[in-house]
Design goal:
11 strands; eleven-stranded mixed beta sheet; alpha+beta; 6 helices; Aminopeptidase
């Protein structure tokens, strides 16, 4: 993504994907940039990421924004990390990428999921993907992003598994991978109300550290 400024406000633009991301924007600033943004990027999809601050509710309503996700920010450091072993979790082999892609796109269908398997493959170098296999089939997986603007952090994007042990083991493998790569904190945005994932994160040492609400405007 490239960084663009509109009226002094930074936005992140992926022109090839007709996609814009705006982070932590105040009500008055969103109202001021919206019309210039519409003129400059007609038809683009916009995601607004609001963290630990009041949402610009009035303007969000006026532009037709819908809640995409409402999450609790959970973080773990090397000091708080508690490894959770499970021999069934392994780093995804590239020969199995198509199997992972089929499962990922089934449980996270577009357009609600930005990171489709195609986009993941296009930016494969930023991801470490861990898989749970049963025979030749992939039955669960986790996705860790290791190349972020904040180089001290790794972020877990997906945890898909059918029981607590596998979920906790995926959290553990990804956190351990991030710490091994020199990251000092790992973040996971756990959807509010997802008690299974919340419990698995706690088992590995993650603690609640704030909140995040994502809003989407499908076309400006």
């Amino acid at each position: 993504m490239k960084v663009v400024e509109i009226n002094g406000i930074k936005i992140f633009v992926e022109e090839a994907e007709n996609y814009i991301q705006i982070n932590d924007i105040q009500e008055k600033d969103l109202a001021e940039i919206w019309e210039p943004l519409k003129k400059r990027y007609p038809g683009f999809e916009v995601t607004l990421c609001i963290r630990d601050m009041p949402a610009p509710k009035g303007t969000l309503d006026s532009i037709g924004a819908e809640i995409l996700e409402d999450c609790i920010a959970m973080k773990v450091t090397p000091q708080g990390y508690r490894p959770y072993g499970c021999g069934e979790v392994t780093l995804l082999e590239e020969a199995d990428f198509a199997k992972f892609a089929a499962l990922h796109d089934k449980v996270n269908p577009a357009p609600d999921m930005y990171w489709t398997s195609r986009r993941i493959q296009d930016k494969r170098d930023i991801w470490r993907i861990f898989a749970i296999k049963k025979g030749d089939e992939i039955t669960g997986y986790g996705m860790l992003m290791v190349k972020l603007r904040d180089e001290t952090m790794g972020e877990i994007f997906c945890v898909e598994a059918d029981n607590h042990a596998h979920r906790a083991a995926l959290f553990s493998a990804m956190a351990g991978c991030a710490f091994g790569a020199g990251r000092s904190v790992v973040l996971r945005m756990v959807e509010r109300g997802n008690t299974h994932e919340h419990e698995a994160a706690l088992a590995v040492g993650f603690l609640e550290a704030g909140f995040y609400i994502g809003y989407q405007v499908r076309k400006v």
